[in-house]
Amino acid sequence: LGHLANLRAAPRRTKAIDDPLLNRLGLQVARTAAAHARLRVGRTSRPADPEVAAWYDDLRREGFVQVEDFLAAGDLARAQEAATAVLEDPEVPRDRLAQGANRLEVLWRSDLGAETREALDALWCDPRLLALASAAEQLAVAPGAGRCTVQRLVQVDGEPDLEASVHVDTFHPTHKAWLYLTDVTEADGPLLYHPRSHRLDATVLGGIYRESTGANAGSRRVPAAEIERRGVAARAFTCAANTLVVADTFGYHGRVQGRPPGARTALQVEWRPDPFRRGRAMAPDRSVASGRG
Length: 293
Ligand SMILES: O=C(O)CCC(=O)C(=O)O
What we know:
Elements: H1 2-9, H2 20-24, H3 27-42, H4 50-62, E1 64-67, H5 73-88, E2 95-98, E3 102-108, H6 114-124, H7 127-137, E4 140-141, E5 147-155, E6 175-180, E7 191-193, H8 202-212, H9 224-230, E8 235-236, E9 244-248, E10 253-255, E11 263-271, E12 281-282, H10 287-290
Parallel strand pairs: 4-12
Antiparallel strand pairs: 1-9, 2-3, 3-5, 5-11, 6-9, 6-11, 7-8, 7-10
């Protein structure tokens, strides 16, 4: 019965299924291949705006796209000011994550006042970003949909950054966007991405099989030998404020180890619909109405 229940859970979003027998029989590899095929056959629409369509092509080919000077100057200044104000306001709720030698504060759109939200919606509701996300996820992403957050990462002394080890977020294509509100240098712990690592091949499927029959972590840490075998070099996203990066985080990624007093602030969005039951649309952030679902 346990195996049957686990088989039923297979065509769902659960990152890893705790069933050594089924995993030995190839369940996680099959889920991976099926989720990627599902998105590929559903990929029928390309953004109408030629500029966004070119970003989409980059994203599909490389696994990421980087766009400099994304917001208009006035919108950027308003977003920077609003983000700084809420980060400095102790009354605004936030998650505090310790991921090794840094402090990460995460403030959710749903916890922000109307004025702040309006300023930061310059990114979260930007029609170009929504068109790109909609094409990437093949469903209509509504303004404010997904996990919209303000994130400030501050480097401190201590253990290495846990996110500095290269990993994938889950077993299916899935997308995150960052708009940096501050310049990002090496010391600030920039995002690291291995272009083209989001593609499926025998090496990555082998790695997924080994993980599923071993530690079976949902967000797999990728061994250096696998990266080397695939020949996908890393790229660090040091950049100027107002740079947008959108990445398929099924691809190999992580952070460069930063050092104090490095710090960076970004607006982030994460879209992660169920890979098998995608539906036609992703509604606005449900957490606005009902907590952080
Ligand atoms: O903060 C970053 O730049 C990357 C974090 C990361 O590895 C992730 O979101 O999975």
